[in-house]
Write a structure and sequence with these properties.
Strand order of the largest sheet: 3-2-1-4-5-6
Radius of gyration: 17 Å
Distance between the termini: 51 Å
Order of helices and strands: EHEHEHEHEHEH
Number of strands: 6
Largest sheet: 6 strands, parallel
Strand content: 15-25%
Length: 148
Amino acid sequence: MAIKVGILGTAHGHVMNYGRKWIEHPEWEVELVGAWDHDKARRDANANALGIKAYDSPEALLDDVDAVVISSETSFHVTLTELAAAAGKDIICYKPMALTLEEADRMVAAVEASGVRFTLGYQMRVDPQNIRMKELVHDGTIGSICHY
């Protein structure tokens, strides 16, 4: 049974890339349901590009999904995380997590209170070229790394 996922904010272009992958690979059992964005033009363009429903509010989207990807501007992360957690939805939140430590603490508190699963989307950590660069640094192939 596919997990129903919604997108809360389409400010970060990466969500379009993995959104397309989810759609192209039904065997992964991820059903991309729809998207909400405070910028209606961006929401409509991105939802149309993915062939998914455009939602008028985050609450309406949360009613129809099991989990969300928060890919909005960082200034919205805390509010959207609190909404999703209160609705019992698992969360992938794009980086950076929050603008302040206080906002990050609020996000942690919301997730802990609800018991939902939460992760930060660091997609580049699993890119093959980045994994290879890390190996080259760690095995000493390219020598010491420094920053000036």
